[in-house]
Amino acid sequence: MSEALVEIDDLKVHFPIKSGLLFDRTVGYVYAVDGVSLKVKRGETYGLVGESGCGKSTLGRGLLRLVEPTSGGITFDGTDVRSLKGEEMRLFRRRIQMVFQDPLSSLDPRQSVESLLVEGLKAHGLHKDKADVQKRLKSTLDSVGLPASALNKYPHEFSGGQRQRIGIARALVLGPELIVADEPVSALDVSIQAQVVNLLGDLQESLGLTYLVIAHDLAVVRHISDTIGVMYLGSLVEEADGDQLYERPLHPYTRALMSAVPVPDPQVEDRRERILLAGDLPSPANPPTGCRFHTRCPWAQPTRCADERPQLRVFDDSGQRVACHYAEEILSGELKMHEVRAEIVRPDSDTAPDVGAELIQTRTDLPAP
Ligand SMILES: Nc1ncnc2c1ncn2[C@@H]1O[C@H](COP(=O)(O)OP(=O)(O)OP(=O)(O)O)[C@@H](O)[C@H]1O
């Protein structure tokens, strides 16, 4: 299957910053999403990663029009989402559901599981046939591994993992085609995370679901994503097949994110590339000129990186896309990291596993170029 269910074209979501006594003056914008184009194929999982504040959630919310995009196109199953109104919009919303990070805050503690699940059905007028509703609720609970007796209980009576199963059931009960899962496991214990990730995988297989999974942690999306997009300060900086991205990360930011994912093998863990990013994420209200990553990039070159914004371009036949002027030179090793900003420790070539590059420890106490 390769048909795109969702197509996002040059999407921008800019939030106005208001000032003045009545907050009636716009003094600037938060460029939360600033020109993202991507496709989510039917039946597949698109993993969107990036550190907190880079615009991942806003992109997900913009797709559902929970926030109104500033510009750009969104197509869902061939329909122009941005032109939908009234009843058409309501029907569209049924086809896409969200799963949120923290089930405790997204589930009203005063409502029983039954009432939480029926709520969605009511919003779409699907609650009238009582026998049918009961059948639907029970089979939905069964599909997420919860017993029918859960219907009469309240969220606090469940463990964190079970609560997330309720959150997933609430999304599933309307029979959606796409699920936007925003940090679906980051509030859970590590031991429970794998169970919920596996559940999402099983549901995808049995129900033919399409997922957009948003996470700050590459480890979470690694095993479930067919395609991974890496976001930095409102833009996609790299996109590739899940495996391809791990074998050959091209963008310096992806390499930095990758180096933060722990590897279970201590030999590999000791020897792999480490890039600790200098400084914090710049403000999306005042993004750096040129390449937005240049202020933190260990390979940034004067003055092109500061002057010219790199476009997301197809790198080679693999279809991998990267927004970096120097991706080829970094990959070939022709361009070295700034020695003043990095301590480079080369691993013993006889024993070093093939993990992409020399072992690099970047010092974070040095100023950005
Ligand atoms: N409604 C809003 N009004 C103004 N600014 C907003 C609004 N929503 C988000 N932002 C800002 O947009 C930027 C991107 O936020 P967003 O939540 O999309 O990032 P994120 O990558 O999902 O981070 P997190 O994982 O912390 O949610 C942030 O600077 C945030 O403060």
From TrEMBL:
Which SMART domains does the record match to this protein?
A: AAA (SM00382)
Question: Which keywords are on file for this protein?
Answer: ATP-binding, Nucleotide-binding, Transport
Q: Name one Pfam family in it.
A: oligo_HPY
Any GO MF annotation of the entry: ATP hydrolysis activity
Q: Where is the signal peptide?
A: none
Which biological process, per GO, is one annotated for this protein?
A: transmembrane transport
InterPro entries on file: AAA+_ATPase, ABC_transp_ATP-bind, ABC_transporter-like_ATP-bd, ABC_transporter-like_CS, Oligopep_ABC_C, P-loop_NTPase
Domain ABC transporter, first and last residues per copy = 6-258
What domain of life does the UniProt record list for this protein's source?
A: Bacteria
The family this protein is said to belong to: Belongs to the ABC transporter superfamily.
Q: What is the protein's name according to its record?
A: Dipeptide/oligopeptide/nickel ABC transporter ATP-binding protein
